[in-house]
Write a structure and sequence with these properties.
The complex is a heterodimer of chains A (about 625) and B (about 170). By secondary structure, chain A is of the alpha+beta class. Chain A folds into 3 domains: about 5-200, Aldehyde ferredoxin oxidoreductase, N-terminal domain (Aldehyde Ferredoxin Oxidoreductase,  A, domain 1, 4-Layer Sandwich); about 230-400, Aldehyde Ferredoxin Oxidoreductase Protein, subunit A, domain 2, CATH 1.10.569.10; about 425-615, Orthogonal Bundle (Aldehyde Ferredoxin Oxidoreductase Protein, subunit A, domain 3). Chain A is about 40% helix and about 10% strand. In chain B, a hairpin with a 6-residue loop joins β4 and β5 (about 80). Chain B folds into 2 domains: about 5-135, 2-Layer Sandwich (Alpha-Beta Plaits), CATH 3.30.70.20; about 135-170, no CATH class. Chain B contains 4 helices and 8 strands. Chain B has about 170 residues and is an alpha+beta fold. Classes of the chains: A alpha+beta (about 625), B alpha+beta (about 170). At the A-B interface, α4, α7 and β13 of A face α1 of B.
């Protein structure tokens, strides 16, 4: 039976409850159960950094099991950055270890009297003093905690110096390579005086049919390994997208001003692979090992070793902020990891103030002497130090984009909001001008504009329409520039991502990443062999739909609607600056008209709220049901 | 001479631990990597990993300490096996193993027996950090590399194309 440990930090109390079978059938686990808990526990008006916010860790239904890439878990709560859904998924080995220790979800409330860490091992949860962690960086924190656990196989989820200071884009890290990044869950953890969770488990996970699970696993392993895209993923990891953004000219160049900027000769991914990466790493049970391990070759941090980088921040520090060499990009990336800050957010904030500086809207007097020239090594690294320590101009940015923009520009602030494009309160994640389905997904994501919510990646592969129709279950418009018929691919992707996150399976092995990889058929096979749930692929997809709907219900309760399903203005009034689409803009009217079909297919009203019929069909009409 | 065993190349290990999960499910029928005969050791901060498992020693230190002769080396396969009809679970074999490759579970002692000739872990090691191959053949690769370096130098001295090793292979 999968369970939840309710941990009251204020009173140092732990209560354990089993998850009712019915809720597993509806939401599976991981992000699914987390979002159910979020909707039921986190009421409107709860302040994100107050003891009233709830911090939820949720391992996937299949996390830790003999299933490909069954590594993942979600950390959720109210986001201190947007005030809306805080939710972040990570891999590594923490999720599986939590399950081996006998727990599937942790619902953490209140606030500890002093810095505390949880020691979770084989059915027990202990509260331990964390004050000695002081201002240790994340690598030092990992080492100290591992030593204290007296077990080299311990896994941990920690916050770094930034999380301890409640920096609103602080992350939760579980190794040099894995983090729960977006939406500032590290700050929520810090606000609860919870500085780490250390876990070690030697317990067995029940399997319905071990022989069948083994067979299913073998089949899916062979399926994935044999696919054309596997080798490139396994070699380049997410850095492939750096090549893509070059060739397709979809950069967020200098804070979205240009769709292509000169990255310099050095910023080549082959250069990184040859001269900086020295090893590859995997998450639990994943054969695709997309993680890089690198060493910085020069500068004040020569010899610094780090995991990654991953594309979002590597693209962020290079194209978006203007850096033209790997040493700068890697140093920025490693500093973010050492402080425990989301690298993509850091890059977006730095690029924002760089554009303000470029336009003469701020100067050295405002920045405390920093000259925010594009790609400037000193400016970028110094800003990250300041963000991590909450000092100086970088520290000021921690007040959040809206407060900062208002303090800088007073009554004129709304006019300058265009330079800090935020969607549903989180940074805009890509240059969507080219791919309409991806752009629609960005405008309607339940977490910011996040590509991890519903990016319809297959749009990038010129697959024959027959193949696409087979995958998506219906005919789809293959033209990436068209504004017609893109709603279903987005919805299908939403369901795929939600299910993957609920199962704890990495989306890099699903059709979100590459044609021929896993999707609902394979997920159903794994679920039915491993657990006593008996679901068809269609029912599995419906779980995804249900999770998406309860997320939309949360947003609706917060007052969001059609007006919030939008992209930044610059997507519509600033034309492409380079390439074959130079001079073109996205058609605003056609773009937003897509919402009609999107809402209709979802079973929502014109304001984007689930209708009564849809709620009934999905069994959500009694929410909040308080079953957990 | 060409008897296969599991050859380990640590530089190729990415730390995924599929070998552990697979071994435990296949041999002990449980979803629990602790019950695996192979374990991946990690230097976390530098991303260094290596699997550790029984090296099927030719002169196994685990054999003499057994008070009931339950652990014996098969001279044909080269594998040291535990006879569970005789084993009393005293764990002296585990104590004697210098590598910690004999795993002491709550109710039994286990070690790698190459899955009785069809090792499973190697099937799911994508990078081939573990491979079921004769060490003699595996190390041929290393000897070949040394050879290639010598051949390139000799070719250069003789006025032959330096790419001699590859020309011969074509």
């Amino acid at each position: 039976m999968n369970n939840i440990a309710y941990i009251d930090l204020t009173n140092q109390k732990v209560t354990v409850k089993d998850i009712p079978h019915k809720l597993q059938q509806m939401f599976l686990g991981g992000r699914g159960i987390n979002m159910y808990l979020l909707y039921n526990h986190v009421k409107k008006g709860v302040q994100p950094l107050s003891p009233e916010n709830t911090l939820i860790f949720g391992a996937g239904l299949l996390t830790g099991m003999q299933v490909l890439a069954s590594a993942r878990y979600n950390v959720s709560g109210r986001s201190p950055h947007s005030g809306l859904i805080g939710d972040s998924n990570a891999g590594g080995f923490f999720g599986p270890e939590l399950r081996f220790a006998g727990f599937d979800h942790l619902v953490i409330t209140g606030k500890a009297a002093k810095p505390t860490y949880l020691w979770i091992h084989d059915g027990n949860i202990e509260f331990r003093d964390a004050s000695h962690l002081n201002d240790l960086n994340t690598t030092e924190t990992f080492e100290v905690l591992r030593e204290e656990s007296k077990d080299p196989q311990s896994q941990m989820a920690i916050i770094g110096p930034a999380g301890r200071r409640q920096v609103i884009f602080a992350n939760v890290m579980n190794s040099i390579n894995n983090a729960n990044g977006h939406t500032g869950m590290g700050a929520v953890m810090g606000s609860k005086n919870l500085w780490a969770i250390v876990v070690r488990g030697t317990q067995t996970l029940p399997v319905k049919d071990p022989g069948l699970l083994y067979k299913v696993f073998d089949k899916q392993y062979k399926q994935v390994i044999s696919r054309k895209g596997f080798k490139a993923n396994a070699f380049y990891g997410t850095l492939m997208r750096m090549s893509l953004m070059r060739t397709q000219m979809t950069m967020m160049g200098h804070n979205y001003q240009f769709n292509a900027v000169d990255l310099g000769e050095e910023m080549d991914i082959e250069n990184f692979m040859d001269n900086y990466e020295y090893a590859k790493a995997s998450c639990f049970n994943c054969p695709q090992h997309t993680k890089h391990i690198h060493v910085v070759k020069s500068g004040p941090h020569k010899g610094m070793v780090g995991g990654g980088p991953e594309f979002a921040a590597a693209g962020g520090f290079s194209a978006t902020c203007g850096a033209q060499d790997w040493d700068t990009v890697l140093e920025c990336w490693d500093l973010c990891n050492q402080y425990g800050i989301d690298g993509m957010y850091a890059a977006n904030y730095i690029a924002w103030v760089m554009e303000l500086y470029q336009r003469g809207l701020i100067d050295e007097k405002v920045t405390g002497g920093l000259s925010l020239r594009w790609g400037d090594h000193h400016a970028m690294t110094e800003l990250i130090h300041q963000m991590g320590r909450k000092e100086g101009f970088g520290g000021f940015l921690d007040e959040g984009w809206k407060a900062v923009n208002t303090k800088l520009f007073g009554e004129a602030a709304p006019m300058y909001e265009r330079y800090v494009p935020m969607i549903k309160g989180e940074p805009m994640e890509g240059n969507f001008k080219g791919m309409i389905a991806q752009a629609l997904g960005a405008a309607t994501a339940t977490r910011g504009s996040c590509h991890l919510r519903s990016r319809y990646t297959l749009e990038e592969f010129s697959l024959p329409s027959k193949v696409v129709a087979e995958i998506l279950g219906r005919e789809v418009n293959p033209d990436p520039d068209s504004y017609e018929g893109k709603a279903w691919p987005v919805i299908w992707s939403e369901n795929l991502c939600a299910v993957g996150d609920a199962l704890g399976i990495c989306r890099f092995l699903s059709k979100w990443m590459t044609p021929g990889f896993l999707a609902f058929d394979e997920f159903a096979e794994s679920i039915n062999a491993a657990t006593d749930l008996n679901l068809t692929p269609a029912q599995v997809m419906e779980c995804g739909e249900r999770i998406w709907n309860i997320e939309r219900m949360f947003l609706a309760r917060e007052g969001l609607g059609r007006k919030d399903d939008r992209l930044a203005e610059r997507c519509f009034d600033e034309p492409w600056t380079h390439g074959s689409r130079k001079g073109q803009v996205m058609d605003k009217e056609k773009f937003y008209r897509q919402l009609d079909e999107y809402y209709q297919l979802h079973g929502w009203d014109e304001n984007g709220h689930p209708t009564k019929e849809t709620l009934k069909r999905l069994g959500l009409d009694k929410e909040p049901s308080h079953l957990l | 001479m060409l008897t296969p065993k599991i050859v380990i190349k640590p530089k190729l290990c990415t730390g995924c631990r599929l070998c552990e999960s697979t071994c435990a499910l296949y041999n002990e029928k449980v979803n629990n990597p602790t019950h695996s005969r192979i374990h991946v050791m990690k230097q976390h901060s530098f991303g260094l990993f290596t699997p550790v498992l029984c090296y099927q020693c030719k002169n196994p230190p685990c054999v003499p300490p057994c008070p009931v002769d339950a652990i014996k080396r098969d001279t044909v396969t080269g594998v040291t096996n535990i006879d569970y009809d005789l084993c009393i679970g005293c764990e002296q074999c585990a104590a004697a193993c210098p590598f910690g490759a004999i795993i002491t579970l709550p109710d039994k002692v286990i070690k790698c027996d190459l899955c009785k000739g069809d090792p499973q872990c190697v099937k799911y090691c994508e990078t081939k950090a573990i491979e079921y191959v004769s060490p003699f053949q595996a190390y041929n690769e290393k000897r070949a590399k040394r050879g290639d370096i010598a051949f390139s130098n000799m070719a250069s001295d003789y006025g032959l194309p330096e790419d001699v090793p590859n020309l011969v292979r074509k």
